[in-house]
């Protein structure tokens, strides 16, 4: 009575072992194939090896489908992966149904600065844009993006350009060769091109009379249409000049805001020099204006009480006579 259970147990063990052995032939191949979570490809085609790890070399090299465009991605879902695995007899099948592989295509992105330069070059050649130093480009919607295969040296070119100088709006058609036997990639963009000019401004507040140095100046871009003919646009017109009124940071300066640094201050006594032929006379007088080197100043002669005009010399004297105007008033 006690020997039958022993035989039954042996039969069950033998059956179980047989099942395990039967599975040995399949399990190793399935265990070696692993689905990739993502794949970064550079070629124009995606291979099975880009989707699964652990494939034999010849199977891994099989082309599965065309790669996305350079710079773009695509997602392969579980059903698509299962179909490809079945057709290629790959020992893999989805277990949850939500498996997927994200495939990204590497590429060479044309820098935004290069695209802007193309548009700017077209603007400079367009009628009605003038001789503006630069343009501020505001694209309608997303700025244009150009990405080509990593095997291609991108050389974008503007093949069609329209600009309305009244509204400052433009549209451009840009082409770039893609290689791989494909037609050129075409990107169309539009937007507004505002002509801007770099204008010198003060970095920080300076008091009236301060002499402006190179380190006191910054440059900001100002829309050209907002400038007037009195606005200083050349930093060299400010350097070495004195402020005639307090200056504030970031605020463009007018020509009238600066002048030659003050050598003579109004109300101070100055020496006047009169030259007549070889004769040189000097006299004291009161400056009736503040003035810088080379500027004309009024001086009240302390002795005659006449007002004369003279030119301020670097040492603060006033040349009256042959070296400058000498209009006298009683």
TrEMBL record:
Task: State the Gene3D superfamilies in the record.
Answer: 2.30.30.760, Antifreeze-like/N-acetylneuraminic acid synthase C-terminal domain (3.90.1210.10)
The subcellular location is: Periplasm
What InterPro entries does this protein's entry cite?
Answer: Flagellar_FlgA (IPR039246), SAF (IPR013974), SAF_FlgA (IPR017585)
Give all residue intervals belonging to the SAF domain: 197-259
Question: What UniProt keywords apply to this chain's record, in alphabetical order?
Answer: Cell projection, Cilium, Flagellum, Periplasm, Signal
One of its Pfam families is ChapFlgA
Where does the chain cross the membrane?
A: none
Main location, first listed in the record: periplasm
Q: What is this protein called?
A: Flagellar basal body P-ring biosynthesis protein FlgA
Which lineage is the organism of this entry classified under, starting from the top rank?
Bacteria, Pseudomonadati, Pseudomonadota, Alphaproteobacteria, Geminicoccales
Query: Its gene?
Result: flgA
